[in-house]
Amino acid sequence: MGFSKEERRKRVLRGVKTLFFLATMLVSLLLFSAPILLVIADTLLPSALLSASVSPPPSLSLQTLYSHLSNYDFRYSLIDIPLISIIRSAVILCVYSLCDGPRLSRGPYMTIATICSVSSLVFVSLKASYVFSGSSTERGAYDRAMEVALFACSLALAIGHVVVAYRTSCRERRKLLVYKIDIEA
């Protein structure tokens, strides 16, 4: 016994509607949790790119981090890019977690996200000009590509923080407007 053509069509249509509903809910969840997801990406991606760009993969320890920081040179060392990203993410996450609806719609979250992002953009751009100005032939194409990816990732995530803060601010303003209209009704 098989299904008739009409029953099969209804089942397929119901399956498509269910998939559309699930996809819409997933996108909504991702947009709602965008600040948290961006903070997680901002802490993990630059660190992963830096560890991939280091030729002999070092063991992850405090001693390795200390040796990178003690041998720090602004023109050559790249350890500060992930540290800037982690600090930027921590500050933005703290402000985001301290703000509620009305404060997310204006003021501190958007301001702090913009200040942190712009200051890190300036630092990373200045550092990129020093790192890429000297023609170093001892580095391979893979190392140079990983450095470019590290800088581009840091710049894109800084811009992403401002965009997500703006979208969150707009979303909270719309919520306040809707609640204000409902209260007056």
TrEMBL record:
<keyword id="KW-1133">Transmembrane helix</keyword>
<feature type="transmembrane region" description="Helical">
    <location>
        <begin position="108"/>
        <end position="128"/>
    </location>
</feature>
<feature type="transmembrane region" description="Helical">
    <location>
        <begin position="148"/>
        <end position="166"/>
    </location>
</feature>
<feature type="transmembrane region" description="Helical">
    <location>
        <begin position="74"/>
        <end position="96"/>
    </location>
</feature>
<feature type="domain" description="MENTAL">
    <location>
        <begin position="62"/>
        <end position="158"/>
    </location>
</feature>
<dbReference type="InterPro" id="IPR019498">
    <property type="entry name" value="MENTAL"/>
</dbReference>
<keyword id="KW-0472">Membrane</keyword>
<protein>
    <recommendedName>
        <fullName>MENTAL domain-containing protein</fullName>
    </recommendedName>
</protein>
<dbReference type="Pfam" id="PF10457">
    <property type="entry name" value="MENTAL"/>
</dbReference>
<keyword id="KW-0812">Transmembrane</keyword>
<feature type="transmembrane region" description="Helical">
    <location>
        <begin position="20"/>
        <end position="41"/>
    </location>
</feature>
